[in-house]
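On clarity, I found the account of how folds are encoded harder to follow than it need be. Since the whole study asks how a given chain folds, the encoding of that fold should be made plain. For illustration, here is how one protein appears when written out as sequence plus C-alpha cells:

:::
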Amino acid sequence: MSESGGAVISELGALTSAAANAQEAGGRAPNARDAVRALRPSQIREVANAGFGVPDVLPFWFGESDQVTPQFIRDAASRALADGATFYTHNLGIAALREALADYVGKLHGATRPAEIAVTSAGVNALMLATQLVAGAGDRVVAVTPLWPNLVEIPKILGATVETVTLTYGPDGWTLDLERLLAALTPGTRMLMINSPNNPTGWVMTREQQQAVLDRCRQLGIWLVADEVYERLYYGDDAAVAPSFLDLATRDERVIAVNSFSKAWLMTGWRLGWIVAPERLMEDLGKLVEYNTSCAPSFVQMAGVAAVKDGGQFTQELVAGLRASRDYLVAALQRIPGIDVRAPAGSMYLFFRLPGADRSLELCKALVRESALGLAPGSAFGPEGEGFVRWCYACDTARLDAGVARLRAFMEAHPVS
C-alpha cells in the first residue's frame, strides 16, 4: 500500500473515530443530575416573571411586606460596616448573635444555650442544612401540605423520597387529620417536616397535636424538622408566639427548629436565619455550613443582634397591623360572589378558593396579564393546593382595596358557569 493510501485510510479512521466519539458524547449531554432535573420549578416565580414589565402591577405573590427593614436594624448594619465588620466569622455565627438568640428563644420557649444555636444564611439555608444533617439518599420523609415548595423539594435534592399528608379545607378553614399523620409516621420514616404557622394556608398546629406527633416521633426515632419562621405572626389567642415543638421537647431530642429574621423583623433581603438543635449536632452542622456558605456576613449578623435585642415593640406593632390587614382583606373578599375565604390563625397569607382556580397557574398568569394583579397559584404549593390562590396581605389597606377592585373586575369579565 502506498504512503498516500495509508494516509487516506488513517484519516478516514480518525474521522470515523471522531464521529463515534461525537455520537457517544451526544448520549451524555451536559445535564444536571436526574434528581435535580426532576425538581419542580417555582410557579410563584413563573407568575412573577410574567409580571415583569407590566405597568402598575400589584405584587401580592411573594411573602414579604411593602415596608422596608426598620431603621434601627439598618443603622446597626451601617455601624458594623463602618467599623470594618467585613471578615469571615465562626461557621455557627458570632458569639453576640448566638447569645442574643439563645436569650430570645429562651424567653419564648424555655431555657436554650448559645451552644444549641447556629446562625445561617437565611431560613431556607437553615432548612437545607437541617435536612443535610439527618436525611439522605433512600430515606423516607413525611411533610404536611399544602406547603411552600422548598420544603418538599429539598429532601429530593438529597435523594430522599417525600410522602405528603394533606390538610383539609372546610367551614373551619384548614385543619389537620391527626390520625392520618400519625399513621404516615411508620418505623421506616427518617424525618418529618412541619411548617406551622403554615405557608400558604395560615394553619397553626395545636399544642395537643404537637404533643401527639412528638410522642410518635420519640417512639420511632424520627427526626422532626419544624419550620417555625412564622411563629411570631400568630393571631390565635393572646400569646405572643404560636405553639412550638420547642415548648415540649428537650434540647437534646431529635428536634430541629428552623427560624428566620425575614418575617418578624422585615429582613427578607438580608438572608439571615438560625437553627435550634441538640448541641451534639453542632460540630457536624459547622462542617455543613463551611461547605455551603462558610458563614453569614458579619455586618448582617450585627443587624440581627439589633433586631433580636431591640425589636420587641416593632414586632408587636407589626403583628397588630397584619391582623388588621388580614381581617380587612377577608371582609373585602367575602363581599365578592364566588370567593370562599376564611381568616387563618397565623402567617401573612390568605389561601382561598375562587372560580377558575382549578387551573390556578393559568388563572394567575391571566390576572397579571389582563388586570396587573399578582397572586400566587395554589398549584405552586403542590397538587393539594390546586383550586386556590395565595394573597400576601402585608401591605396597607389602600393597596388591598386596589387589588380587590381588580380581582372583582376580572371575575365579572370572566364569569364561570
